[in-house]
Give the backbone structure.
Amino acid sequence: MKKYYIPTSSLNFNNILSTESVSPRAFYAQRGFGYSRWESVKENNFDGVTLLYSTPHMFTRLASELEDHAMLIEVETDEEFPKLSEGIFYTDKTIYLNPWQTKFYFFSQRVLTTVCSLSDSSLETKMCRLYKRGMQVDTFEGEYPEILDVAEPRVEDMSLYIGEDYAINKMKGLLYGYYIGANLSASQRLVVRLDSLRRIQDIFASIRSSESKTASSSQEEQLKELFSQLERTEPIYWDLEQEFPGLSERIVAFLTSRDRWVRVFDRERHVRELKTEGENNPAVGWVQNEIRKVEQEIQGARVRLDPEKAEIIVSTKDKLSSLKSLGK
């Protein structure tokens, strides 16, 4: 596999993650779903094609009132692209991304933090969490040259590719909905537990990044609520609720008041451990391990759709296409 690099603006971050793809700029106004606008950069300023570079370099954005910053996307693929000039390639199709073969490079920690913060409030960027491991702060040697005196490659009718993108978008919506529904139906307890742990992990990370490594009053309240919610997803608590509907909290409160309720985790200790120096923080390690255990349990209970036994038909704007034909 080869690595290619796509320079773009951080203003396109939500757009990219909403569809997990990068398309030529002209596609966005015509495709009929998602964002209709794409912010160009001078290093990637053609309408009908996306430029891909063979090596990573630095580039800058002009000062703006908007959060418009340089962002470099690394994609690893075995696809071959036509060559525009030395070290520069192009494609007139959409490039589909995945968390395992994609990285996002930012040139300062402030920009990375700002971009992630802005995406957290967007419902369209629901896949952001999967890509966070590939979001990095780095610098590279040299700068990308401006594309001057180079004619834009001639492209065929883009409507065919836009139609395929439209069908793939509908198919992804169907499959994501199916799997989310399968997970929810598998175990409400596990879904609630995983959500609580992930939110605790986010707060732990925020506390660890602060100078004092101490929870604020707001964070303390959030952790108190989340730990209580997490405790209610413990199997013994869940079994009590099934056996004595509406009485489980009173039973636990009664046993706790008489030191007869055994807690499976020590919330106070975990919060104290956040102050422990070093990379392998015990509190962070605990929540990461709990998340892995829940994800494995969900994985084991998941009902998978088998494309070999049932054909999926999706509609483009003017025809029906099978999943098999789209994969060719």
The first strand starts at residue 2 and ends at 9. Residues 159-186 form the longest helix (28 residues). The chain has a mean pLDDT of 82. The CA atoms of residues 212 and 275 lie 8 Å apart.
